[in-house]
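**Protein of interest**
===
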Amino acid sequence: MSKAAVIYWSSTGNTEAMAQAVAEGAKAAGAEVELIEVANISADDALAYDVLALGCPAMGAEELEDSEMEPFFSDLEGKLSGKKLVLFGSYDWGDGEWMRTWYDRAKEAGAELLTDEGLIVNNTPDDDGLAACRELGAKLA
């Protein structure tokens, strides 16, 4: 059984709802899962998990949230070689550039990405968005 951490930052609750659905999908597929707000874990502690799901909405000019998620990911980035990882988040504007940039950073750091791209949902996840999150979570198992 894989031990997974779903680590997220959320302002409006949209990415938090996605994180909860990702965790549900992972649990249903047999993974041992912890749902953790990014402020409550260090990069080094995150590395103790077999697989990571990181969630963050698009902020500003399509960037990661800069006070908690960006510093966390920057610290984690140099330690991702071989780490199994998925990325997800919500957005309100733009075309997903923040997710493509984040995905490319993780790939360049040597992470073993379990999907061909990060999962993005516009604003509040609807039933289809939550189902996609649960499917993403199943990949963690």
Notes: Strands lie at 3-8, 32-37, 51-55, 84-91, 112-113, 119-122.
